From TrEMBL:
UniProt keyword list: Isomerase, Signal
InterPro entries: Phytase-like_dom
Top-level division of the source organism's lineage: Bacteria
Name of the protein described by the UniProt record: DNA topoisomerase IV
Position of the signal peptide: 1-20
Organism (species): Pseudomonas frederiksbergensis
């Protein structure tokens, strides 16, 4: 009996030790302030060919191409004419709160993520309306026709219930016929929809993951505490889905069909250095691109100054982890 109890304790301790293995730290290579964003609040990044694109959650009528030829990047305005937003099934109460908030902060659409397919189409997710805008290389912008089942299923699984906690990021495959969406928090989640003949719809089901609860901020965070688990952007690279998890200060590689975590990397040691800290009590990173050589991570600092006084949006370049993004633990 005692031997069995001791063996069970040993196995439990071994299990705990494995799960508590430190998350590898990523390394910053460069830092770039961004000038020229009317609304500030850089809230997404995408790479279309050789160009980097971004959006602000305060601007409804323009997106930005980034001139990266100098250390300080310049945001070049690209105007868009946005048609009326379709009914996505989001409740009137959430939509009305967003509408009211837009008079204070600006940005009724609340653009929170941008991605591109291989044809150069840009896709922008509106948190305020749980909708996705397609901006083709030429021609007018249009809202994707998405089945109301997506919002209905997400809400049934505990997502999209809180104001300002709807969709925070998206990713699309190169062919432009599969799209992943990240529900931000309370509960956070990942959804997958596929393009049918006329409508984007669930393939059996939309929700890959729904996850509530809290987790501790990294120890480098001043007065670290337990905060809501969240997603703040997505990136698809080499057949894997990468999630930006700003409250945990980490990037995680996930299976794109099941959302199961395969490996995570932390950026806390770099971005929580004294000279890079902001006064807000939570993570601020909202933009992610993963490529073979590393990662771009951008911050939405809500016009709040950094310790060194910098108020412009910042994008950091991180080196790829040792062994690359596909490396096993």
């Amino acid at each position: 009996m005692r031997f069995g109890f001791a063996l069970a304790c040993a196995l439990l301790l071994t299990s705990f030790t494995v799960s508590a293995e430190p998350v590898p730290e990523l390394r910053v290579l460069s830092e770039h302030a961004v000038d020229g964003m009317r609304g500030g609040n850089l809230s997404g990044l995408a790479q279309c060919g050789k160009d980097l694109w971004t959006v602000s959650d305060r601007d409804d009528d323009q997106i930005y191409r980034l001139d990266t030829s100098a250390s300080t990047w310049q945001a070049e305005t690209v105007r868009i004419d946005v048609p009326p937003v379709p009914d996505t099934g989001l409740p009137w109460g959430l939509r009305s709160r967003n509408w009211a908030a837009s008079f204070v902060r600006g940005g009724d659409l609340d653009f929170e993520g941008i991605t591109c397919d291989s044809a150069g189409n840009r896709y922008i997710v509106s948190e305020g309306h749980a909708a996705v805008l397609q901006v083709p290389p030429t021609g007018p912008a249009n809202w994707l026709k998405i089945s109301p089942m997506m919002v209905r299923e997400a809400r049934a699984r505990g997502m999209l219930l809180q104001f300002n906690a709807i969709f925070e990021g998206l990713a699309i495959n190169p062919a432009g016929d599969q799209m992943w969406l990240a529900a931000e928090r309370q509960s956070r989640g990942l959804l997958l929809i596929k393009r049918k003949q006329t409508v984007w719809d669930c393939d059996g089901h939309c929700v890959l993951l729904s996850e509530a609860g809290k987790e501790m901020q990294p120890p480098q965070f001043p007065k670290a505490r337990a905060v809501d688990r969240d997603f703040s952007d997505l990136s698809l690279f080499d057949g894997k889905l990468f999630t930006l998890e700003r409250n945990a200060y980490q990037i995680c590689r996930r299976d794109p069909q099941t959302a199961k975590v395969e490996r995570c990397w932390s950026y806390a040691a770099e971005l929580l250095q004294e000279n890079r800290r902001y006064s807000q009590n939570f993570g601020l990173e909202e933009a992610l691109i993963i490529d073979a050589d590393g990662a771009w991570i951008g911050v939405d600092n809500n016009f709040g100054p950094r310790v060194d006084g910098e108020v412009r949006p910042i994008v950091w370049r991180f080196a790829a982890p040792e062994g690359g993004w596909s490396a096993k633990p």
